[in-house]
Design goal:
This protein is an alpha+beta fold. It contains 3 helices and 10 strands. An 8-stranded antiparallel beta barrel has the order 1-2-3-4-5-6-7-10. The chain is elongated, with a radius of gyration of 28 Å. 23% of the residues are buried.
Amino acid sequence: MKKLTLFFFLCYLNMYGQNTIEEVRVIKDDKQIDDLFNEIGSNELKLDIFDLLSLPALQITYERINDPYSSFGADILLNFSDTNASRSWSDKLAITPFYRFYFFDKRDFGGSGFFAEVFTKLSFGESDVEYYYGLNNPNIEPYNEFVQEDFFDVALGASIGQKWINRKGWTFELSLGIGRYLFNKDPEQLLGGPEIRTFRPRVTARGGISIGKRF
């Protein structure tokens, strides 16, 4: 009788141990992550809904998932809003290449979760420029003149954010970053002419709320 009881007890422990192992395997290992990553795809297109509603502007991003831990890509911004008196500068077109690093836990699909990125922004637009005449010239009464001029500038910066993805490949992303323009100059005095001042900022913000699809 004791041997029979011991036999049933050992069978119970074996069945319990198997169930425990199956329950613990809710956390994905590297092979599961790679399988899901390959199934969903490594190309992604997304639309920034914040720019679309607030400016309006169209910002579309292409991202190539290099592996579950990194990606690269670029976005293009087309600004359809008119420059008005309350705005002294406006990006009409911006192209922003980036490289991104993902830091995800084992519940994620890869190419998602918390991320940090570095970027380069190429900006084309219009800016108010002030020409101030009469400095150091007693024969001319000082006066200033504002004109709008086209500009091109390059910024370097970094961003952080969070991306979520489901099994169908739909993504939702929040991001925020900052960069610094390289060619924005201090006021300059032309020889025998006016002082020139521009009103473009020295820094640029990057970020938004995006919805995308991976394929």
